[in-house]
């Protein structure tokens, strides 16, 4: 049976990317709250035009024609800095921040104040973008890391992973499907050595059908019963011969 190595490692790294984006989300929300209530920003004088060569300050705000704050920006002694854009109802819609630990992130929120898109980079080389639905459930996450992984994961309305696509630094690529119970059902992979394969698994997690090609010219399909025993194999070899060996499963 063709095996697809590295599946656990792929999912661990995708989860690490998601965790990183979530940490950045919490950080930028906290920074946005600080900016929104900052006492460092003074009152704005009467409207008018002015020209300056250089303005130096630790924080500033921009108001609209009704005097409502629409943009706030600030830097802080802990090394963090941020810019927050608010809508006309005073709700933060875009937060852009950098942090003392070398993270950087941008978050977009909907009109109800719920984060819908988060993008960020970590000091360790990770970069990720996360999309959430209006109920706050993460539905798509795409990212890369310093080790050469790149991947995209799609989740259902309950936040469960259903599809994952990944490429690894070793030259392999993988596409995986899970059922609604979170069980892996289909694996499709290609490898740097020229092999390629697809596994179909039943609801109990047992591989039932495996199809693959090998770099040396072989191609094979294997069927297993519900106990995981191989019952039928069919294939061709590198010389063009067709083979149909069958095992009883005993």
Class by SSE composition: mainly beta
Q: Can you tell me the overall shape?
A: elongated
Helical residue percent band: 10-25%
Largest sheet, if any? 17 strands, antiparallel
Beta-strand residue percentage: 35-45%
Give a structural overview:
The chain has a 17-stranded antiparallel sheet, with helices on one face. The chain has 1 helix and 17 strands. By secondary structure, it is mainly β. The chain has one helix spanning 7-36, and strands at residues 59-63, 69-75, 81-86, 92-98, 104-109, 115-121, 127-132, 138-144, 150-155, 161-167, 173-178, 184-190, 196-201, 207-213, 219-224, 230-236, 242-243. The two termini are 17 Å apart.
SSE order and pairing:
Layout: H1 7-36, E1 59-63, E2 69-75, E3 81-86, E4 92-98, E5 104-109, E6 115-121, E7 127-132, E8 138-144, E9 150-155, E10 161-167, E11 173-178, E12 184-190, E13 196-201, E14 207-213, E15 219-224, E16 230-236, E17 242-243
Antiparallel strand pairs: 1-2, 2-3, 3-4, 4-5, 5-6, 6-7, 7-8, 8-9, 9-10, 10-11, 11-12, 12-13, 13-14, 14-15, 15-16, 16-17
Name the descriptors:
single chain, 250 residues, 17 strands
Short description:
By secondary structure, the chain is mainly β. The protein contains one helix and 17 strands. The longest helix is centred in the N-terminal third of the chain and has 30 residues, at 7-36.
